[in-house]
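Quick one:
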Amino acid sequence: MKCPACGKDLPEGITTCTDCGTMLLSPASVTIDEIMSNEQYRTIKELIALFVGIVCLILIFYFGYY
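Output:
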């Protein structure tokens, strides 16, 4: 197995690259729950960014006409 970050040849079964410290995950070790939680986190982040943007626009228009 090779480290995806630095390319060092690594023995099978380790979870961290001994050269650069990158965490190594095999495709089978990622569960559906982890994928879903990442997608939910991204959606929440997008909603927060949208909310902050709308608040900024409201403040700009409010103080722009004041």
